[in-house]
Amino acid sequence: MRFVDEFRDRRLAQELSAQIARLARPDREYRFMEVCGGHTHTIYKHGIQDFLPPNITLVHGPGCPVCVIPMGRVDDAIHIARQPGVIMTCFGDMMRVPGSTGSFLDASAEGADIRMVYSPLDALKLARKNRDRQVVFFAIGFETTAPSTALTLLKAAAENVTNFSVFCNHVTIVPALKAILDSPDLRLDGFLGPGHVSTVIGCRPYQFVPQAFQRPVVVAGFEPLDILESVRLLLKQLHEGRCEVENQYTRVVPWEGNTKALEVIRNTMELRPHFEWRGLGFISQSALRLREPFSNFDAERIFQVPGVRVADPKACQCGEVLKGVLKPWECKVFGTACTPETPIGTCMVSSEGACAAYYNFGRFTRERVAEAVR
Amino acid sequence: MTARPTREQQVLDRIESYRRRKTVLREERITMAHGAGGKATQTLVQALFLEAFRNPLLEPLEDQAVFGVNGSRLAVTTDSFVVSPLFFAGGDIGHLAINGTVNDLAVSGARPLYLTAGFILEEGFATADLERIAKSMARAAEAAGVAIVTGDTKVVQRGKADGCFINTTGIGLFERDIQLGATQVRPGDAVLVSGPIGDHGITIMLARGELELVSQLTSDTAPLHGLVESLLSATPSVRAMRDATRGGVATILNEIAAAAGVAMVVDENAVPVRDEVRGACEILGIDPLYAACEGRLVAIVAGDAAETALRAMRTHPLGREAAIIGSVREDPPGLVLLKTQFGGTRIVDLLVGDPLPRIC
Amino acid sequence: MCLAIPGQIERLIPETDLATADVSGVKRNVNIGLVSHEGIAPGDWVLIHVGFALSKVDEHEARASLEFLETLGEAFRDEIAAMTGAEGFSPLDTAERGGG
């Protein structure tokens, strides 16, 4: 596969690994946060941690826009799905996220018509084909996905597909980054910036990170070589005493972002004053909702969702795990009240969340695994 | 090796003891995950069915049961087919219904002989479609050398069955004195697969139409008894075979590793995957290792018989692209590890339910 | 929100903002509304996310990135060969052995 396989080249990986090992000073620890769920996935899928020396840790951040959806919003969506005549559509990622009484999968078992789609356009198509039903699209994702929802809304409006609506849960990356950086016990040395979000917002929005918090940012692609090269660039910055935003993912990320994409978002959506993130609490100006001119397509207004806030249990310490302050096993509810079957916070909800991964495989040390594959 | 701090070890020990406790079914309702062949299915089978039916023949929980009758050894298996759409590139529910059961018998080492066919039909289902399905079944049975000797028909009201559900039960006879199964597997064994993985699962996913992905892929549904015969004739050192259906190769390897108390190490570069399967999987964010097959077999053979086994499979039309994909190790028991194409390592766990497309 | 894959545009569908894209032989119609202002033609590569083209893949930049990685490697290749002999090595070996 072009533009994919070349960036999975083993030989180049080994060379990069050697370079990284050279640049990393043996007398200190390095902690780099990757903010994006997609980066977490690549790191696990390809076993990238194996290419880094033991004193470099990649910390998984809150970049899973699915896992940070609070239980109350899932409950709201299930409430909508249960209304007569509704077809709820969502991405596959949403099917297992728990609300306070169950997930979409459970709601489907109880009779709600919930269907997976690959694209919001498919939901719109469903609405055109089923004029007697109300088709609702559960929109999730960072700025990467918001333009797609926005264009779909514009299409729906232009074609007057009145039985289509959007339940908007788009969140924005910068406030989440700020929330992490504002923590007093921050122990991070740099960030791998979210490559695909950056195709939309560009690289400029991350400048506050070096400027106000003195941490370098490298906007990273999603293939294994991209991630290793980005780690190398971060180390190089630290080594050379630089602190700035760099773009590693130049083949796809324009420094200025995609102005058309930003325009359609602005056209259809606006920032909510605040939004609750599972495990991180309320963050201001961190999520999007539909603008007034699109209220006919706003599921929240059409269905008068209960909007009940289901608080994260006080015991949830996801915030600290996300910031790299706590290890999963150090969380008070890890393995007892909070397990992969009964997850409380975002770190356990996602199968690649730090806690879920540790719960399933923590008993196998890196050494034991390495020995097994030798 | 670094020793773990005590508190961390306490937490890990606690998790281990939960793991070893009796499996409990928590859900009050059946969800789609229970039918996917992964963790949820396992829990359902162990906590509900095994609890209710427990007996020595059932406990191994292999794909078939093996027992003796008056000096002969027989294998019996059953499978239900609920695929949607009923007709897809490369076959239909009829082909699956025959091949699936034939394969479950063949992988035990028995010769498939007779099948039953039970139909649950939805009111309103087109008889022309039913005839088409029956003809497919007849052709598949002939190709597999089995006869459909008895059956049943039920009709349920409109909306209560997806057109047509089929159950087939198969009986096979052991003509060789062999004992295959997960318990035969041991460290040093080699893991082979008979061809490219994921063809069926991805074909079906694409055929559903909601994803609007188009390709030339076809289902790999096929009867494997001939391939099995080639393999068993070539070497006496076959330990276990499974046909990789729902849950894919990853699920099979996990089941065997757990049942045998061994580790498996798989080389991602060695696993054959067609370009289109890779493409669809990359688009949807699915791992081909979990995608269903319907005409592929996973064989564990003694290490020194690996090359012989490979050659034998490759001489058969259904095994031309067979490959040695990994090996069995002693430690860590129950774990399946992958040497990624990139050169790193990753643990391949059972999924809870079906692999779902993701955007994240 | 991160899963996006490069695909090649096969043809534009006239009178729509859609194009047929190919990923390893799997085809899907993608909406090119977000990138059409950059000029999309058959043969171009785009980054596809939930049925939309988000960005054009700059083939020149892609090649440059890879070439840069190759040159980085050159300086170290002899050293690696000396360290590991003919067999090559596991990434962990390098990681643990390295560090300046």
What would a concise description of this structure say?
The complex is a heterotrimer of chains A (374), B (360) and C (100). Chain A contains 16 helices and 13 strands. Helices cover 38% and strands 16% of the residues of chain A.
Question: Can you give a write-up of this model?
Answer:
The complex is a heterotrimer of chains A (374), B (360) and C (100). Chain A has 374 residues and is an alpha/beta fold. Helices cover 38% and strands 16% of the residues of chain A. Chain A has 16 helices and 13 strands. The model of chain A has no long low-confidence stretch (mean pLDDT 90). Chain B has helices spanning 6-20, 39-53, 93-106, 127-144, 199-207, 225-234, 248-260, 275-284, 306-314, and strands at 65-69, 72-81, 87-88, 91-92, 111-122, 147-156, 164-173, 190-193, 213-214, 238-243, 263-267, 297-301, 323-329, 336-339, 345-347. In chain B, a hairpin with a 5-residue loop joins β14 and β15. The radius of gyration of chain B is 21 Å and the shape is globular. Chain C has 100 residues and is α+β, with helices and mostly antiparallel strands. Chain C has helices spanning 59-84, 91-97, and strands at residues 5-13, 18-23, 26-31, 45-49, 52-56. Chain C has a five-stranded antiparallel β-sheet, with no helix packed on it. Chain C has two helices and five strands; from the N terminus they run βββββαα. Classes of the chains: A alpha/beta (374), B alpha+beta (360), C alpha+beta (100). Chains A and C meet through α1, α2, α5, α6 and α8 of A and β1, β4, β5, α1 and α2 of C. β9 (213-214) of chain B pairs antiparallel with β3 (26-31) of chain C.
